[in-house]
What we know:
Blueprint: H1 2-20, H2 24-33, H3 42-45, H4 54-67, H5 70-73, H6 78-101
Helix pairs in contact: 4-6
Protein name: J domain-containing protein
InterPro entries: J_dom_sf (IPR036869)
Organism: Puniceicoccus vermicola
Amino acid sequence: MNLVILIIAAIGGFVLVYKLIPSGKAEKRAEKDLPYTPSQPWFKVLQVPSDAQWSEIENRYRELSHQYSPAIIETLEPDLREDAYTLRREIDAAYRTARIRHSLPVED
Length: 108
């Protein structure tokens, strides 16, 4: 009986410790879900003039978001993939900022 209790306690302790230790993959996944602030002004990230018309901004965003779509990023080499995800987050954040600057509703 004591041996069974000892085994159950050992397994329970292992599961508890396993759940408390953060996984590198989970941390990276959580970082991707956080709001992202571009390192450059929105118009530089989107490669448009600062006084661009909304149609020009929207067209450029569509081009860039297609170029850096998740399906395409997944085909890249692993060392390039993280840089592409970072650039994609910058593009999305820049577009969000552009929408705010043009007094348009921001979509989640």
